[in-house]
Amino acid sequence: MTLRLLVSVRSVAEALLAARGGADFIDLKEPAHGALGGLPPETIRAIVVALRAHGHTQPVSATIGDLPSHELDEILARVAAVGACGVDIVKVGIERSPDAQALLHALARCGRPLVPVFIADAGLDERAVALALTLGFEGVMLDTADKRAGSLFEALPREAIARFVALAREAGVRVGVAGALRRHHAGEIAALAPDFAGFRSAVCAGERSAALDAAALRELVGAMREAQASSRPSPISSERMRASSAR
After folding, report:
1. Whole-angstrom Cα distance, residue 143 to residue 146?
2. Domains, the chain, ranges and CATH?
3. How does pLDDT run across 39-96, given as a tens digit for each residue?
4. Catalytic pick from 10, 29, 185, 200?
5. Contact yes or no for 18/45 (Cβ under 8 A)
6. Virtual CA dihedral for 181, 185, 186, 189, nearest 10 degrees?
7. 147 in catalytic set
8. Contact 114, 86 (CB under 8 A)
9. For residue 127, which of 87, 96, 206, 240 sits 20 to 30 Å off, Cα-Cα?
């Protein structure tokens, strides 16, 4: 299984840099406006057009902005607006809230390809996660809201993150992780083996609201490839395991 890199960008220039630099998914957001800060529809549309005009075929996702779960009408309106911009996937934050399950049901009925992003800062509501895995979404994702508080690995115990990934795997749903992840987390991420991992802070020259940095992106791509290669059992080891099991 190949772990794919999702890189968050805010402009045409950053999107083209990410697409050329090894990103497998191009994710559109405004990091200065929060964890899932939304870009104006006209900016989203311009980025999609530019990527396709330059021959880049990576899937493109876009966030709708940080909204509380009870603002259902506004959330659905933004999903429709973002989805109409030509993106492949719309991402919606799901906070731990009494309104989370109603929101998930509404999103599943909206007719757009969606990925619910579960915000981990206050812990996970496993009932909401379990529900999402039954509703036919394009995938599910873990992220954090407060990037200054540390990474996803500080927000949740590793066992809880691994369980989230395992539950999605068992349900046959694609799964991703994000949340102030850095290059030094490459080994931990590869060991979890999600389908994709999202980055912004790790590929910027400074804070996550700074510009995307080509050198940082190259270093991250190299680190993730090396970590994933190291986490795979060698063919000889795999053959020995099979032989041992057959005895």
Report:
1. 10
2. 4-246 (3.20.20.380)
3. 999 999 999 999 999 999 999 999 999 999 999 999 999 999 999 999 999 999 999 9
4. 29
5. no
6. -80
7. no
8. no
9. 87
